[in-house]
Design goal:
Layout: H1 7-17, E1 22-31, E2 43-48, E3 55-61, E4 67-73, H2 78-92, E5 97-101, H3 116-126, E6 130-147, E7 153-168, E8 174-188, H4 201-220, E9 223-232, H5 237-247, H6 251-264, H7 268-284, H8 288-303, H9 310-336
Parallel strand pairs: 2-5, 2-6, 3-6
Antiparallel strand pairs: 1-9, 3-4, 6-7, 7-8
Amino acid sequence: MKPGLGFILLTSICILTSCSSISEMTLNVVRPAEITLPVFTRTVTLVNLSKKNEGSEGVFIDAYGSKRPLRLEYTDPSGNLVQMLNDYLGKSGYFSNISLFTLFDRTNLLNKKMTDKELDAIRDSTGNEMVLVLSDFYIEPTLRERWYNTYSPVLTLDLVAHSKYELYAPDNKYETISYSDTLYWDNVGEIVGDTEIGFSLDNCIKDMAGYTADHLVKLLVPYNESVKRFYFTSSDPLMKDAAIYWKQGKYEDASYLWEYAWENSKKNKKRAKAAANLALYYELQDNYSTALEWANRSFRIFSLSAEKNTAYIRMLKWYIGQLEKRIKDDDKLRFQLI
């Protein structure tokens, strides 16, 4: 898995924080689902039509770069994935009813679009409006060896999971969803035979299914995400008092002092910091357009002395982008949370 976007910027914020001119805080924000479901459609049936896979063909790369075929045996993971989808969707609280529809013989339906008759039969059986079909789920493994020291090799197992779904709306219009991602595990030890790799493979497969299920849920359901935010502090008495209020959760009291600093200070840098802090205050009030106005004011003032404020300008650019995203997300959320 790769670090999230903004990692480099947030690292620079942490470095600046050590100078005690910037403090961090964490916000929980609601992100919209990528796929907007029909209004008031809050029931879904999950169907597994994936081909059963009892193992995967991959490649082993030793410490010298030589390759040889790798075969991993495991229990069909598609059942785990569908069960986890059921659990995660249920925990989201977004759907009023979720059902699993079991087809004991799914051979004839593999890689085929479901017919209206088949969909009607599923809806009649479960009473749910939407049907989500797992049409394919397979895993590509790669095992890499490198030397940790003279005696012990380190093995890295990469599993690339590919999943494909069809989401059928109440009118039987459908959308295809495809997703691929990689998880990896490290282990110190030796390979014993061709399939003994030193990992709990069943646990790795379950982790992969859980990670894949979590991603799909975020495509269908608005979700919470923890994000980093920053605010300026200084030894200036006014800014210092505001920071105390802020840490105590007295956000409105802090905002009054920042507004006073903005209106009465003759120092551009102090005004820019106060404006940036006010942007954060209004973001906490879910007033994203006003927050964006304050962030832009701060950015413009810092830009008057660009060479001295390079790091602050970079931070404000990033924050302005975050606020613009929240404004865009808010439009989708209003529809999705009806």
